[in-house]
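haha ok so turns out i had the wrong file open the whole time. this is the CORRECT one, sorry everyone. sequence first:
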Amino acid sequence: MAVRRPRLWRFEYRHDDTFDFGPYGFLDDCEPGFICNHSDHTGHYAFDTQPGVVLWNLNALAHAFSSLLDTETLKDCLGQYQPLLIDCFAERMRRKLGLALGGDDDQQLCADLL
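then structure:
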């Protein structure tokens, strides 16, 4: 079963509708742990927790497919999420920083800049 590459924090609309990005549409100051939802006392909706939340949601979706697909197939698909996420995030950050080639210290560089 093939897993498509994730699109990080990107929304596309094919209509003339608008989409409310909330406080994350434009970030003047980067506060990855900022919680905009006042009912969120654990930080579930903080910007920096979203990759983990996506994995949790994918696990819930996999559970829904558990009667249709074997467990190993589902585990294989879920196991592809983290490496794809890391690669996609690194690629996007390199483009934002104008880096043509990837390096071993890219992840640390991005963490330091954020």
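The CA atoms of residues 39 and 87 lie 33 Å apart.
again sry for the mixup
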